[in-house]
Automatic annotation (TrEMBL):
It is found in: Membrane. It comes from Hominimerdicola aceti. The chain crosses the membrane at residues 490-507, 514-540, 546-568. This is Dynamin family protein. The lineage of its organism: Bacteria, Bacillati, Bacillota, Clostridia, Eubacteriales. GO terms for biological process: mitochondrial fusion.
Length: 683
């Protein structure tokens, strides 16, 4: 009978995690009981990581779209400050605590605990004093007793995207780290020019699948108009997203076909957040339904549990089947080995040690193939890398060529404004071009690593077959143990049906958290954020650590350089313009040349490529060595016992049987969970 698993709500998801965690704790005790030290340590690490796991949801959008009000509606009470003026000036995280207070983390590394009633004095722009203090704050964590956050969900309130560049960059910096984002749009001015440009130029293609777009401030329109606004916004978002994906992946590529299927129709929901907040505070269920807020909350819950959370559940179930199966193998091996004649055992022992050595040798051969794959990816990217600076420079030159100017632009005061405007256009064009190139590069890396993970399926199958072969070496042909048949069946199901043991789940599923939960610690830059958020930070003001900023500083100062050159009225307007643009190009080329010398883009990409494939190797190494080391240590311990001519007692036999029965029941249950989750992920 197919096992029923409910994880569609926060409560049921937590309950499912709790059940899997309890089973994993039981396996921890069993592995310690039979001295599987490495398996026990691995289980312990998984349990610690699971205990720390929680969903993170960021609320983003232009200033004054009602982000803080939306959060307060989610919490059911007015926790965060909201005002008619742009209020939020820092990242504000809301997390669960029975005792309400605020922990303020400053940019200088210091932290301070403050009364929750004084929150607006630290994180808003409502007064000159609070704005000055907010500039020193890195993040404020609001600890509060709310039902929403009790579900292991943290909400992050972000500064307005279009408030100022610094606040926009603060928001952009957290997008790669979260599980879901809620992009708030105003129904009164749906899809502003900034929102359009943000989607086209700054929102990464890989982010869109984890965003819910909320059109706020409904209640003042007719139902027909509300529906029309939502459909218009949904259509525009879909258009911008797909057009960008085509540029990044190529319209005819397999990646684009998969992306289009997975992304589907953008999630766009119209709500009236203020009404929802009032309704929750007064307990008015009818008003809450009219606000359409329950639909939004359900969509968010589904995204977190059924789409993001299922990966975490799959990894827990995989860990149970892998660890449980290893316990079963060890029990069978110990029981049979202790009953073997010494000569027969020593013969099998030598064969087993040799097999372990051969497995490790095969693994080294696979590592060579992975290195070859990384080299191939890097070589395939070489034409893009070689032309990178040329493309960026060409983009700047085209902006200069197409920039419209007149004779009035050469007046002394006007020229500075014109130069600043041209500089800004160059910045925007460079940003857009660099974004596409870098996402194309990252997409190539992602696809190559995914293909390599699929290729490794054969090695994974061979690995588990070899481990099973070692256990079978110690089978006594003329004797069937009491539980041997059951254990063989369970082992066969766990290995035969899945083969990989779920080792590389995180590499094959989308989402940052999926990769990290899967143990892919070498994949910190797996998604297309590294280049745009770090390497090109200097262009966009995120950081001033890269020499790229020198370009913009030089461009901003060009007005002073050129003013004296164009003070003679006798020069014709066209000549003035041509001369101005020629000098501008010269300065820009000079800056690009210096940037190219000081920033080895090719080396940056090379490190990213090999870091991605090293993550794959690291996962293989850690997971296989857990099993191999425990197998070898078990054999060595048995060898010591056989040397001492110790016989297995009836009591010890019963103890091993009890361990096997407990482990087999847990593995069977986890196998059913895995099957259900796999079907859900493939549907």
């Amino acid at each position: 009978m197919k096992k029923q698993i409910d994880y569609g709500s926060y409560a049921s998801y937590k309950e499912t995690v709790k059940g899997l965690t309890e089973n994993l704790k039981s396996l921890l005790g069993l592995s310690e009981e039979i001295a599987l030290v490495n398996t026990a340590e691995s289980i312990r690490e998984t349990l610690e990581k699971t205990a720390e796991e929680h969903f993170e949801v960021a609320i983003v959008g232009e200033f004054k779209r009602g982000k803080s009000t939306l959060i307060n509606a989610m919490l059911g009470q007015e926790v965060l400050p909201a005002d008619v003026l742009p209020a939020t000036a820092t990242l504000n995280r809301v997390t669960y605590s029975e005792e309400p207070y605020v922990q303020v983390e400053y940019k200088n590394g210091k932290s301070e605990r403050v009364d929750i009633n004084k929150l607006e004095d630290y994180v808003t722009k409502l007064t000159a004093e609070s704005e000055e203090r907010a500039e020193t704050v890195k993040e404020a964590t609001v600890y509060y007793d709310t039902e929403f956050c009790k579900n292991n969900v943290d909400i992050i309130d972000t500064p307005g995207l279009n408030d100022d560049d610094q606040m926009t960059n603060v928001t952009l910096s957290i997008l790669p780290k979260i599980d879901a984002a809620v992009f708030v749009i105003s129904a009164n001015s749906p899809f502003s020019q900034f929102e359009k440009e943000f989607l086209e130029k700054k929102m990464l293609t890989s982010d869109v699948g984890r965003i819910i777009f909320v059109v706020n401030c409904f209640g003042t329109f007719s139902q027909a108009d509300e529906n029309k606004i939502v459909e218009t916004v949904r259509g525009r978002i879909g258009k911008y997203v797909m057009e960008k994906a085509k540029k990044v992946m190529g319209e005819d590529s397999r990646e684009f076909a998969v992306y289009k299927r997975k992304i589907g129709t953008p999630r766009v929901i119209g709500v009236y957040a203020k009404q929802a907040l009032n309704a929750k505070e007064t307990g008015d269920k009818e008003a809450l339904e009219k606000s359409n807020f329950p639909e939004f909350e359900k969509a968010l819950e589904t995204m977190l549990t059924k789409e993001r959370g299922v990966i975490a559940l799959q990894i827990l179930a995989n860990k149970i089947t892998n660890s449980g199966t290893e316990i079963l193998r060890s029990v069978v091996m110990q029981e049979n080995a202790l009953m073997m004649a010494n000569d027969e055992f020593m013969e099998k022992y030598d064969e087993a040690i040799k097999e372990i050595g051969e497995i490790r040798n095969k693994k080294r051969q696979e590592f060579v193939k992975i290195n070859d794959a990384a080299n191939q990816v890097f070589n395939d990217l070489q034409p893009v890398l070689d032309s990178y600076w040329t493309n960026i420079e060409q983009t700047a030159m085209e902006v200069i060529d197409n920039f419209q100017m007149s004779s009035d632009d050469f007046k002394k005061d006007q020229l500075k404004l014109v130069t600043a405007k041209l500089t800004e256009k160059i910045k925007e064009s460079i940003e857009a071009r660099a974004q596409i190139i870098c996402e194309q590069i990252q997409n190539s890396i992602n696809f190559a690593v995914s293909c390599e993970a699929e290729r490794l399926q054969e090695f994974e199958d061979e690995f588990f077959e070899s481990v099973t072969k070692i256990q079978q070496m110690f089978t006594i042909s003329d004797r069937v143990s009491k539980n041997g048949g059951v254990m063989d069946k369970i082992i066969g199901v766990a290995i035969g049906s899945y083969g990989v043991g779920g080792l590389f789940l995180g590499f094959r599923e989308s989402g940052v958290k999926g990769a990290l939960l899967g143990g892919a610690t070498g994949f910190a830059g797996f998604y297309a954020t590294y280049y745009t958020a770090i390497f090109f930070a200097g262009f966009f003001g995120i950081t001033a650590t890269l020499p790229v900023t020198l370009c913009l500083m030089a461009l901003a100062g060009i007005a002073g350089t050129f003013t004296s050159n164009f003070a003679v009225d006798k020069i014709l307007v066209k000549e003035r313009i041509d001369k101005y643009k020629s000098n501008f190009k010269t300065q820009v080329r000079k800056q690009f040349h210096e940037m190219k010398l000081n920033n080895d883009f090719t080396e940056t990409v090379r490190r990213q490529v090999f870091s991605a494939f090293e993550g794959l190797k690291g996962k293989i190494e850690s997971e296989t060595e857990i099993i191999l080391r425990d197998t070898q240590e078990t054999l060595d311990n048995l060898n010591d016992l056989k040397t001492e001519k110790s016989n297995i007692s009836q009591k010890e036999m019963e103890r091993l049987h009890d361990i096997a029965e407990s482990a087999s029941a847990i593995v069977q249950e986890a196998y059913q969970v895995r099957r259900v989750l796999t079907e859900a992920m493939e549907s």
